[in-house]
Design goal:
By secondary structure, the protein is an alpha/beta fold. It has eleven helices and eleven strands. β6, α8 and β7 form a beta-alpha-beta unit.
Length: 275
Amino acid sequence: MASISDTIAAAAARISSDSARLDAELLLARVLDVERSYFFTWPDRQLSPEHIEAFDTLLARRINGEPVAHILGQRGFWTLQLAVDPSTLIPRPDTETLVATALDRLPNEPLDVIDVGTGTGAIGLALKSERPDWRVYVADVSLSACQLAQRNAADNQMDVALFCGDWLEAVADASMDVVVSNPPYIDAEDPHLDEGDVRFEPRSALVAKARGQADLRRIAEQSRRVLRSGGWLLMEHGYDQHRSVQSMLIRLGYHRVESVRDLGGHWRMTLGAWR
């Protein structure tokens, strides 16, 4: 027998992660079918052998490096709970910077908004949850991602339209007011690809050619056709890519171009208006 507090502490010491204690709490919460707040109220509760065995099974997967989101099959993003699987990128808190910026900068009136390369549907669904009058579309080239985004829309009771195709190729000319995207932007030679959770995520959702900027460029180029006059493009990118993305957008004819930092102080996204 072991207490909740001792079990969490011992597990956290075995997990190689910046969020080791949180990881342990999330796994134990799943086993006990409780919220994490339960642990603050009942830290001395003794766990049954069955609970310990089930927890150890999940803990072994985490120690092996498997992301908590894949173990649990879900991830919180914005105010939503989203189903996740190994076919897509796991939604990350940094991407909420893009959602917050869109909500802050765009008018609260009916708009046509597309989240391209949507993966789980995280960005598009978060925007729809805050702006129900926006007509939100989500798009991805991966059939598995399209199915996952559709599932998350249904689970969260969100009415969004789905395109399954290569970036914006299936979208009509001058049909959108806003394009948002968190595309692949990591250089194939980046050593971090062999570390942490990203080892379990699809490389196609992480890596882009041209030192990580090929997909950013392609979306920016295609958005010129898709955006109505005065429409906005908002793209997440790497912390050291903001100057090159700004220059690219200006060369392509965008104006009012600027970059925004995330909560960690890193340059996380760049936006620009189409003429």
